[in-house]
């Protein structure tokens, strides 16, 4: 068993709580945030210096790493097929991980055919929440599923920014996806201005709570969350592993308050924002980072395969 958040090489006091959970406290004396691996800045510092980790672990928690590409508005159907043909041998049988590709709606069918039998999950990047109707240009959860989608990205910051996607829509889309048996991958994340003004946690909590309104632990079973700080998307500026871990641990706490600890411990939280082959391993080594949502680096079979094989 590995305690979530535990840092290698530090002694730990471990005790069993009355609730059956195992708790570990690690204490480190540090002179600076950098020395403790804590990024400096208004959001992260000052923090309690002498206690840099309070980790909680459970024996029965297993969150299979989920490595998903988000192709955004790139690739036609035939280009998707060519990608998948080149990608398949690079990732083999995908043991111990799940690989997924969020492709343009026009490529779902061909991509799903090309990926059949490989374990690679094909998904949509958006749906509308109604079952059908006069919604020009939109597709429903059922349409995405019938074309071959197994998951759908919901509430990506580009949709929030350019198409006015609200927390209410995200919530309705989550419900529509779950009702259709699609895995909802719900994105949350703060902008640079929000981070700099110290409101990151407030923004994350309100986006996640908005998405989860009326969602029961049962509906939330297939749910995946993606933490994508807007300032890290397409900029080459990745959040540090410690920055991402802190946000992920916070999001898991919000999930626990909204859905209970059992659901919170089971739901995978992906990190997205300039994930590349050379930083994937460090990010995925963090206790609460259960996978990645990858934009640019998922457009080439070789670089996405290196991310999927992050631990090999
Ligand atoms: P990049 O990996 O290109 O920064 O994009 C991240 C993203 O938006 C994934 O949804």
Task: Describe the protein in words.
By secondary structure, the protein is of the alpha/beta class. The chain is built from eleven helices and eleven strands. It has helices at 77-91, 108-115, 141-147, 157-163, 167-179, 192-196, 200-211, 241-259, 261-266, 280-284, 301-308; strands spanning 12-16, 22-26, 53-57, 66-70, 98-102, 121-124, 151-154, 183-188, 224-227, 268-272, 291-294. A hairpin with a 5-residue loop joins strand 1 (12-16) and strand 2. Helix 7 crosses helix 8 (241-259). The model is unreliable at 1-5, 17-22 and 28-60 (pLDDT under 50). Bound molecules: 1,3-dihydroxyacetonephosphate. 1,3-dihydroxyacetonephosphate (13P) binds at residues 70, 156, 228, 233-234, 272-275, 293-297.
Task: Put the structure in a nutshell.
This protein is α/β, with parallel strands linked by helices and 312 residues long.
String of helices and strands:
EEEEHEHEHEHHEHHEHHEHEH
Instruction: Please report the distance between the alpha carbons of the first and last residues.
Output: 21 Å
CATH class category of the largest domain = Alpha Beta
Low-pLDDT stretches are 1-5, 17-22, 28-60
Widest β-sheet, arrangement of strands: 4-5-6-7-8-9-10-11
- Give the tally of β-strands: 11
Structural class: alpha/beta
**Which kinds of small molecule does this entry bind, naming each only once?**
1,3-dihydroxyacetonephosphate
Please tell me the overall pLDDT: 87
In this structure, how is the largest beta sheet organized? 8 strands, parallel, barrel
Radius of gyration: 19 Å
Helix content class: 25-40%
């Amino acid at each position: 068993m590995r305690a979530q958040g535990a840092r290698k090489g530090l002694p730990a006091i471990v005790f069993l709580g009355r609730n059956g959970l195992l708790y570990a406290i690690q204490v480190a004396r540090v002179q600076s945030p950098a020395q403790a691996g804590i990024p400096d800045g208004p959001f992260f510092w000052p923090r309690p210096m002498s206690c840099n980790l309070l980790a909680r672990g459970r024996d029965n928690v297993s969150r299979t790493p989920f490595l998903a590409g988000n192709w955004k508005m790139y690739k036609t159907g035939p280009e998707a097929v060519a990608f998948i043909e080149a990608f398949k041998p690079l990732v083999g049988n995908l043991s111990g991980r799940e690989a997924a590709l969020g492709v343009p709606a026009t490529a779902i069918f061909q991509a799903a055919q090309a990926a059949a039998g490989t374990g690679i999950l094909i998904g949509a990047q958006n749906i509308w929440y109604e079952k059908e109707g006069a919604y020009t240009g939109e597709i429903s959860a059922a349409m995405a599923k019938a074309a071959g989608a197994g998951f759908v990205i919901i509430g990506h910051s580009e949709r929030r920014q350019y198409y006015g996607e609200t927390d209410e829509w995200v919530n309705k889309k989550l419900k529509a996806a779950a009702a259709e048996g699609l895995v909802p991958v719900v994105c949350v994340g703060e902008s640079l201005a929000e981070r700099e003004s110290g409101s990151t946690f407030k923004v994350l909590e309100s986006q996640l709570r908005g998405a989860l309104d009326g969602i029961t632990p049962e509906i939330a079973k297939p749910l995946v969350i993606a933490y994508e700080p807007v300032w890290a998307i397409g900029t080459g500026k990745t959040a540090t592993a410690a920055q991402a871990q802190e946000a992920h641990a916070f999001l898991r706490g919000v999930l626990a308050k909204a859905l209970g600890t059992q659901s919170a411990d089971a739901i995978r939280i992906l990190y997205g924002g300039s994930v590349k082959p050379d930083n994937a391993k460090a990010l995925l080594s963090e206790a609460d980072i259960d996978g990645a949502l990858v934009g640019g680096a998922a457009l080439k079979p070789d670089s996405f395969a290196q991310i999927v094989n992050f631990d090999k």
